[in-house]
Design brief:
The complex is a heterodimer. By secondary structure, chain A is an all-alpha fold. Chain A is built from eleven helices and no strands. Chain A is globular, with a radius of gyration of 20 Å. Chain B is of the alpha/beta class. Classes of the chains: A mainly alpha, B alpha/beta. The interface between A and B is medium-sized, with 26 and 34 residues.
Amino acid sequence: MLNSGSRIWPIATNTVREAIRHRLLYTLLFFAVTMIGFSVLIASLSYVEGERIIQDVGLASIRLFSVGIAIFVGIGLIHGEVERRTIYTILAKPVTRSEFLLGKFLGLLLTVWLQLCLMAIAFVAVSMLVGAGLDLGYAAAMLLVGVELMVIVAVATLFSSFTTPMLAAFFTLGIYALGHLSRDLYSLGQASDAPAVKQVATLLYRVLPDLESFNLSIQAVHGVAISGAEVGWAALYGFAYSIALLILASFIFHRRDLE
Amino acid sequence: MSHPTTTDDSREIVRVDAIVKDFRPGLGLRAKRVLHGVSFAVREGEIYGFVGPNGAGKTTTLKVLMGLIRPTSGNATILDCDVTETGFREHIGFLPENPYFYPFLTAEEILRFYARLSGVGGRDRDRRVHALIELVGLGHARRERLSTYSKGMLQRVGIAQALIHDPKVVFLDEPMSGLDPIGRKDIRDIILRLKSEGKTVFMNTHILNDVEMICDRVAIIVKGRIRHEGPIREFLNEEAMRSDIVLAHLAPEVAEQLGAKFSARVQTVGEQVEVQVMDGQVRDLLESALAAGAEVLSLSPNRISLEKIFLEAVEQGEQADGSSAAERGAPAC
């Protein structure tokens, strides 16, 4: 009897292989690295805190392009396999639908993490070039960008498991935007006098991902101390949230007719 | 090549019981029934032909068997396991219709991928990949990307991946599709080889020639209903088991005697004598005719009936569909 890992891993590595042969990913990666380099030019227009501007723009570029890549590849992750019917021969082997889903998720996650590492190397290179300081805060910020990407990939996998790439893109972008606003929505709801508004705001805060908990860019750039616990809890939260999404995706995918 | 024969008491490897499948085209739209209580059984070691026109429900039935879609009601088992389970799949192989594979991989890479998923490891994996690439005749293109492959070559890759883990039961959806005559013969030979190895083969097809040549038993499905099912010889009926022989240099009175002796239909046309005789008596009749100084001009098995039965089944299906539509259209009062 085979164990799950020996079936999930080939699907994951195959997904990485498929992704890294996608030309558009290189274009996005090229733009991201260009933006990090371009931050030097932006900083030269300012008389003050040029190094901070470089790192601020650099980190923002990394977040933006990483999420772009995750959504771009993630929305067609499962749908593409069903549409091209490549899934038929895979599921005819002793592979469960959950294993297939997890393999695809892991493959995309490894791809976006690989791209994140490349962008991080470009960021460190530019920072060193202009003599900007680098400390562990940046490493923590980068780590949590990785965790945020895990949540985004899980969201894209969930929507890709039952809907078209167009709708999956719409929903995933929506969750991404709301995920960054969920704290503000919660605060606004608590400030309201209407109990129903408070309840709805609380419910939304509980259901939507709190993506701002993964945003340590400002603390890193301004040298504000970041505790290990803060990073650890955020990582744990992202991990648990992703697992919950994957369980839901698996539940839906198991019941789906693959026509 | 010796072919193991199946008997009526052979073990049932695939069992389909009253499968009904409804598809809902969209939210709020009425469900469309594509399978109406399909039942059949495939016995160990046989080649089973599942025949029907396009849109009859062949692929839908196969998708139910592969666990890709769930039946609305009824159940199906393979090797005594419910088709919704996955454990037994290490013993089955599947070739979908018009298979499509990751275009960025080579034939070797895709077969290694499927071997890993099937739990074939180490040296055994390399050996199986190599042997199957040679078996399906892709040795010359083994390291070329699948994006450069023709439809026929992809079909061969499809056959190879279905056999990569040496399964006991093989399901083939239109295996001859997209192949030239040589390719079709190659695939027929592979299927017969699988049978000789004791494997069970289930084959969806609408090419009756292939069915006649290699299948042991056949089911005809029309508009989601099984219209006929049975062993191919029984299926072909008496007329189909006759052979046509054309003889020359045979005196008319001798021809008449042979006709009476072997219960054959004899017709003299000019210098030639046309004889239609049951398959079992072809040899004896030929020996008698040759002894009487006749020359054999041609011998052809009469295989027209399967097509006839098939067309009749399609016609019946359409008539039944038409009458049920008329019934539906009748006022409820």
